[in-house]
Amino acid sequence: DNSTGNWWLTLDDIVQVGYWPKELFPHLREGASLVRFMGQVYASPNLPNPPMGSGRLPKEGYANAALFGKLMTVDSNSYQIDVLPEDMKPYSDANSNCYDLSYYNYSGPKYRQAFLFGGPGGQNCDK
């Protein structure tokens, strides 16, 4: 937000989900050079890993897995910019039976650039 310096998460250009106060990110005062869209879970040692997203794997499709769609960033002039396919670098450091991701490049006008992610978690999830 150019007027406040806060970092906003917005849904469908109209719903302001929330923001991160600028004080949390003083190093981003001049902007960001990298954006990561991701999911993350944590489990205490010796406990099973929890589900991520909907708890369903991407191979189960849009109706089941968690979705990040309409991926965009905002430039210094407050213009929304679609994420470019060549800038996407899918990465997972988990066993694909526990968590996975599937990048779908351009998925039509509703989702544009999108990926499905998540999974049930469980035991032995490290690669």
From TrEMBL:
<dbReference type="InterPro" id="IPR004314">
    <property type="entry name" value="Neprosin"/>
</dbReference>
<feature type="domain" description="Neprosin PEP catalytic">
    <location>
        <begin position="1"/>
        <end position="126"/>
    </location>
</feature>
<dbReference type="InterPro" id="IPR053168">
    <property type="entry name" value="Glutamic_endopeptidase"/>
</dbReference>
<protein>
    <submittedName>
        <fullName>DUF239 domain protein</fullName>
    </submittedName>
</protein>
<dbReference type="Pfam" id="PF03080">
    <property type="entry name" value="Neprosin"/>
</dbReference>
